[in-house]
């Protein structure tokens, strides 16, 4: 599953994850702590996928730039 989050949504996920962690640390209710844990895991997965997509896009851009450099080299020969 690929992420289709915007950068703003990514920042919101990070903030919400911090909130889940904070709530886990102050709650005395096991059920609530477990719910915050499950939600935090889902948020962490979305953050992970966003960053995998970011890395893949950077690699694709780098490959495209390398191809263009090779192509320009052939034109100059």
Describe, in plain words, how this protein is organized in 3D.
The protein is mainly alpha-helical and 77 residues long. Helix content is 86%, strand content 0%. The chain has two helices and no strands. The protein is rod-shaped. The model has no long low-confidence stretch (mean pLDDT 89).
| Uncertain parts | none
Share of helix, binned: over 70%
Q: Radius of gyration, Cα only, in angstroms?
A: 20 Å
Can you give the mean pLDDT? Answer: 89
Short summary of the structure?
This protein has 77 residues and is an all-alpha fold. It contains two helices and no strands. The chain has helices spanning 7-26, 30-75.
Main features:
2 helices, mainly alpha, 77 residues
Give the arrangement of secondary structure elements.
Layout (H helix, E strand, L loop, with lengths): L6 H20 L3 H46 L2
Helix pairs in contact: 1-2
């Amino acid at each position: 599953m690929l992420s289709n989050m915007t950068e703003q949504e990514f920042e919101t996920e990070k903030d919400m994850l911090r909130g889940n962690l904070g709530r886990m640390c102050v709650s005395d209710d096991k059920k609530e702590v477990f719910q915050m844990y499950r939600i935090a895991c889902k948020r962490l997965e979305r953050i992970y996928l966003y960053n995998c997509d970011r890395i893949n896009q950077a690699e694709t851009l780098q490959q495209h730039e390398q191809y263009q450099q090779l192509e320009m080299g052939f034109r100059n020969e």
